[in-house]
Write a structure and sequence with these properties.
Elements (H helix, E strand, L loop, with lengths): L1 E3 L4 E8 L2 E6 H10 L6 E5 L12 E5 H38 L1
Antiparallel strand pairs: 1-2, 2-3, 4-5
The structure holds zinc ion.
């Protein structure tokens, strides 16, 4: 088992019939509990922390839905950052305007 810093995920690796098999630890953990994952499914991290591979945090989801979910999460994150920016702007503006008076 090792951690790939580049993708920020844990992997497991083992040998089967002389073949090396590599798998995302999240998928592996899910499979230990529930059996093989159908090809069209992904394992999603409920708290969106890809390092948290606890069984409670894993959820099986259709790959298509998974992609949609993540683009949505990305989008809502972007909106949050924009709101933060907006707030900061508003603060500095009220500070400058109050110093005027
Ligand atoms: Zn996910």
């Amino acid at each position: 088992m090792w951690f790939n810093r580049f993708v920020g995920r844990w992997f497991v690796e083992w040998a089967e019939n002389g073949k090396r098999i590599r798998m995302l630890r999240s998928r592996w953990i899910w499979e230990q509990e529930h059996g093989p994952i159908p090809e069209e499914y992904d394992v999603h991290h409920k708290d969106v922390n890809k390092e948290n591979d606890g069984l409670d945090n894993l959820e099986l989801i259709l790959s298509e839905d998974h992609d949609n979910l993540h683009s949505f999460l990305k989008f809502s994150k972007m909106v949050d950052t924009e709101i933060e920016w907006f707030r900061k702007d508003g603060e500095s503006e009220s500070q400058t305007s109050s110093s005027k008076y």
